[in-house]
Amino acid sequence: MLAEQKIEKQIKTILENTIILKRRYLDDEQLYREEQFSVLKEIFDVNVRDREIKELSSHFAPIFRQDHPIHLSLLGKTGTGKTVTMLYFLNLMQNLCRKSKIELRYMHLDLSTPKPCFRVLNDLACFLDAAKRYKRGISLDELMCRIEDKIRDYPGYFVLFVDEIDHVRKDLDSLLKFLVKRLPQRLSGKLVLIFSSNKLDWQDNIDPRIKSFLKINEQFFEPYDAFDLKTILSIRIKKALNPKMIQSGVLEKIAAVSSQNHGDARKAVEILSKSANIAEREGSIITMELVDRAMEEIERDNFVAMIKNSPKQLQATLFSIISSSLKSNRPLYTGEAYGTYHAFCAKIKMRALSQRAFSDLISELDMYGFIQARVLSHGRYGRTKQIIVNLPRTLLEKLKQVVLMEFDLNPA
DNA sequence: TGTCCACAGGAAATACGGGGGT
DNA sequence: ACCCCCGTATTTCCTGTGGACA
């Protein structure tokens, strides 16, 4: 056989056995806006999130009567499609408005990482080209004025979509006061605010004076059920994968597990993506068993990535807790843990924090799910947090290793 | 019934760093 | 060069507390 033909044949078999055809379609962040919208269009075309879209439409209908829709609050857990649905909807709205010669602009403020009020305003100003990125050193008022100047003369509807509003770490009140009370008064156009949050009670801690001003509609996003997830996943499979390489039932399994655990579409796609990666690496097709492994691997990677990106003090805290809990095999208490932490700090020549601060670090680790900590009273033997480490031993060892590497130490 | 342990966790103070305005 | 402003991290100080024990 000629070399040319051989190569041709080899390439052909490789292509036939490839699992991932278009990797980009497994990760939203690698898609262009248009591609994202085209995926969304397919999803929404088959009646997923139908109810929500309908309600959004009726909420925004007043625009076509030159009326002013009131503000909107999107509620629902992460991965239930608040952001994508809203963006998709706003995009459609803009097209519709263009046809009807109505001026409409929208802007998406993404707070998926927590930010203080200052950052939020700064980001907004950047979007509007009203200011450059400051780290600090400029007053809040100055930022607000610049923002106002930029949009004061805009005649149409200005829709501001503040995503994950509860992530405003400090001074949510000032931000809302600006958005709700001050900004609308100084604009010639009409301002429509949209907030999204996964906390149902995000409005509870607002200053009542602002709250009374804030006329707001609520829109719930239920977690996806297995059926929805199945359609969402199958669209991704169609776009990205070679269907011959997927064992039957895999799709159903991912959908079922995801709907039970969280109803989070993003995570479901992530599981699919990870499974495909493992399968490709091992030259097998995607099987049920691979899905299980993918889920474990995702969880492990999450923990490792989380601790890698954490401050040194948190890493040291985790290390101390893991070490002493691996040794003793019984619950740990704050005092003891602080002791080992103190010793560890001495060893790596890092300044140890006060116990007060250490206690907060423990709570933080609990929030991230590394440990379980709860206050427990032992009567006259005091009240303290009980710390339980409840992760697989292999993962704990891995985490220890990671921390040591962060501190440039050999596992000795 | 009161005591008292070993902390929890809130509030305010302090330290620090870095950028803008002048 | 200087001062002021702001955000973050941490400390200091503090009051609160469930329940075993005497």
Could you characterize the architecture of this molecule?
With 412 residues, this protein is α/β, with parallel strands linked by helices. The chain contains 16 helices and 8 strands. It has a 5-stranded parallel beta sheet, with helices on both faces. Strands 6-8-7 form a 3-stranded antiparallel beta sheet. A hairpin with a 5-residue loop joins strand 7 (371-377) and strand 8 (383-389). The longest helix has 21 residues, at 288-308. The model has no long low-confidence stretch (mean pLDDT 85). The structure holds a DNA duplex (22 and 22 nucleotides).
List key phrases describing it.
412 residues; 5-stranded parallel sheet; 3-stranded antiparallel sheet; globular; 55% helix; DNA-binding; alpha/beta; single chain
